[in-house]
Every structure is written in structure tokens, then in C-alpha cells.
Fold this protein.
Amino acid sequence: MITVQSACLSFDLDGAHHSVLQDISFRIERNESCAVIGPSGCGKTSLLFLLAGLLEPNSGTIEVSGNRRSGTILQNFGLFPWKTVWQNISLGLTLLGESKDRIASRVDNLLDEMGLTGFDNHYPGQLSGGMQQRVALARTLAIEPDILYMDEPLSSLDALTRERLQNLILEIWRQKKITTVLVTHSIEEAVFLGRRIIVLSKRPGSILSIVENPMAGVVDYRKSDAFFHACTDLREMLKGEQHG
Ligand SMILES: Nc1ncnc2c1ncn2[C@@H]1O[C@H](COP(=O)(O)OP(=O)(O)OP(=O)(O)O)[C@@H](O)[C@H]1O
Ligand SMILES: [Mg+2]
């Protein structure tokens, strides 16, 4: 379980004090799928960094209970440019000391699932943004994390590839019962994948609402009236938060 209590984050830059996140509190249960949505610059990436332990809050607490293995997909992919696609995806498994055979079969499966077969020996710089995003997704899924933190992992993909990978994330969440935290700009993506949706206000980000969305993960939810209504409600909520 993840428990965030009264967390605040700020930076001092050029003598000025910038508040990024204000009084953030929420809980994410084990095996929960949670989406975080809010206007650009409201602190979504910063919040994910706090959860992943890459940043410390200035005040308040963040607790991730249990001895969990987390995987993080960063907004800028975080791939190693001097390693090939195959080496990038296999990196975590190599660090975990997995056998050569197991690494090879797992990486080949992931290449296939991500539609990257044949690109094993390419370097990230030789791929499109969407392909790099899929390598980043494959690299993180390779280590079978218990908690998956994702920062707009599908933002550079065409609509159909995006839907296919949304389905894949859903499938992974359902089968492996991992805890997922997905930062997204897309209202539809938040509603499709987040059983709990944390809605942040414009900068400095505070909690505008925590929406319970229990239909997320149900087959064919995308085609239902309930899905349409949930998206409309979320859109209305976010409309008031645009920087004017
Ligand atoms: N290291 C830092 N030093 C100073 N300010 C920072 C730092 N990191 C982030 N910020 C500020 O914190 C605010 C929130 O940034 P963050 O990247 O978390 O937003 P975001 O919601 O992820 O935006 P986007 O949707 O565009 O990705 C921004 O105003 C940014 O300038
Ligand atoms: Mg961001």
C-alpha cells in the first residue's frame, strides 16, 4: 500500500521560492490501478518522483509498505543511448542475475509484444519517439515489478497502437495483480486504466478530487455509456484548471 500524507514539495530557484505540490494526501491500495491527471506543469512528474523515492517531500510523509520491487517509466524514456534495444530491455534482468536463456526468451517475447522484432540491434537514436517509448515499456515490464510507475508512457503513439498498449497494461495489471500508477494527459486513458483517478489542480498542484472509477479494467468499458459519462465528468472538472 502507498500512503501519502500532507506532502508538500517546493524548489528555491534564483532566490525565489516555487511551490510545486501542496498538501497532497491519498492512499493507493495494493494491486490498485491509479491514474494521475492534471494540467501541464501541475506537478504530476514530481509526484511520481516522490512515490518512486527519486525526490523527498519538503514536509509530509510518503510510505510504500512491504518489500516491493518497483519499475519506473520516465517521461523522457530514460533509455541508454549507447546500448542497443536488446541490451536496454535486458538490462534489469542482467542486473537481477537471471540466466542467459531466461533473459533471451523474455526479451524476445517482449520485443514481439511491443512490435519491435527485428530492431534488436538498433540504438535508441535510430528509432522514432513511439518506438523508444515501447522499448522503455518493455525494459520496465521485463523485471516484473510489483509496483509500476508510468509517466505518460504512451503519449507518442498513434491512436491504435496506444489502445493496443493500454489493453496490454490492463492485461498485465489483471494477470499479475501489480500496483500501477499512471500519469497521463489523456482523459480517456485515465478513465480506461485508473480504478482510482487522482485529479490535480493547476500549479501548485493540490488534490482537486479523487474519483472512484470501479469500472476501469472491465472488458468493453470503452464502448459503454458509463465510460462516456465518466470522461465528460472528468473533462468538466479539468476545464476550470486551465491556465488562462
Ligand atoms: N528541479 C526543479 N527545480 C525547480 N523547479 C522544478 C524542478 N522540477 C520541477 N520543477 C517545477 O515544478 C513544476 C511541476 O513540474 P512537473 O514536471 O512535475 O509537472 P507535470 O505536471 O509533470 O508537467 P507536464 O504535464 O508538462 O509533464 C513546474 O513548474 C516545474 O518548473
Ligand atoms: Mg510531467
